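Field notebook, page 347. I keep forgetting to write these up properly, so this time I am using the form the group agreed on. The chain and the ligand, uridine-diphosphate-N-acetylglucosamine, are recorded exactly as supplied. Prediction of the bound pose follows.
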Amino acid sequence: MSEKILVTGGAGYIGSHCVLELVEAGYTPVVIDNFHNAIRGGKALPESIRRVQEIVGTEILFQELDLLDEASLQELFKKHRFLAVMHFAGLKAVGESVQMPLQYYKVNLTGTIRLLEAMKAHEVKNIVFSSSATVYGDPAYLPLDENHPVGGCTNPYGKSKYFIEEIIRDVCKAEPDWNAVLLRYFNPIGAHKSGRIGEDPQGIPNNLMPYVAQVAVGRRECLNVFGNDYNTVDGTGVRDYIHVVDLAKGHIAALEKLKENCGCKIYNLGTGTGCSVLQMVKAMEKASGKEIKYKIVARREGDVASCYANPRLAEQELGWKAAFGLDQMCEDLWRWQSQNPTGFSKN
Ligand code: UD1
């Protein structure tokens, strides 16, 4: 019998790519999602999961469930025996989090606490958590390693990631037989090579590459580049973009780590290479063959000049390393965007 993994928020961008990798690695994912961001497909499934089923050719267990619904969560844990949990569910828009901090803390923190309580009650002691490089705040040095001070970020979304890390660390201290891997993502982009699943932000994209892709496909007129007076190669912000499929494979490596009874571990998932906004625009123009119009506007509040990972620890301890380069990321993003100009919805 293949091992069951609970995937919270599994219909989302990163979650759905991880579900696919879990199936390919021989696990049985059980996906829950509350449809806050996901589009409904046929047969009561999110469209992303319906498409993952198509790609892998097997049925995927799915239940519509909100982590704040304690009774249903308990039922779920009674129904299945999970080896581990991969926790992606949560609100994630930085700007919105500044407007509605209570909502962000309620969903992200309370949702996680309910999940951890259910795990404890049902003796599920392994968790992989979807954290973010945002916990490092403004880098004191680069590249960022896992020992860099954390908690310096200024918005409720980022703080919720930091708080959840702390909560999970404390649980692991109190429960010595628990294992946790906290994965600090840099900037995930791209899509599965099939072009069938990818990132589908609702409304105007907050993040750079979904916006760039929508300009390339003609859905938006012009990219606003947030500042060109940073102390970087060309004045625009530098980030560590990582292919979402590499990121998903990092989660499989994290699962294997849990099986070693690793206790609480933290790893960066990045490539170690920084790219500027304008370098990303060029790379996407090359991949798509389209001109991407842009204009320079004011800096976005809360943005740092540069942020990129030291990915060595994950390489040494997880045996994981990003394999895809920038051209591949942009080609795969373009395949997804050009074949699905309106994302998962039909119009
Ligand atoms: C953002 C979030 C971060 C979150 C991450 C993943 C902020 C301040 N940070 O990171 O907390 O974990 O997304 O969701 O929102 N840019 C433009 N024009 C745009 C969009 C972005 O020039 O329309 C620039 C930004 O200034 C930055 C780079 O592109 O230099 C990347 O931005 P983005 O994709 O939003 O990622 P982060 O800011 O790194």
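OBSERVATIONS:
- The chain has one domain: 4-339.
- The pocket of uridine-diphosphate-N-acetylglucosamine is lined by residues 92, 94, 132, 134, 157-158, 187, 206-208, 211, 223-226, 237, 239, 277, 300, 302-303 (CB under 6 Å).
FOLLOW-UP: compare against the apo run.
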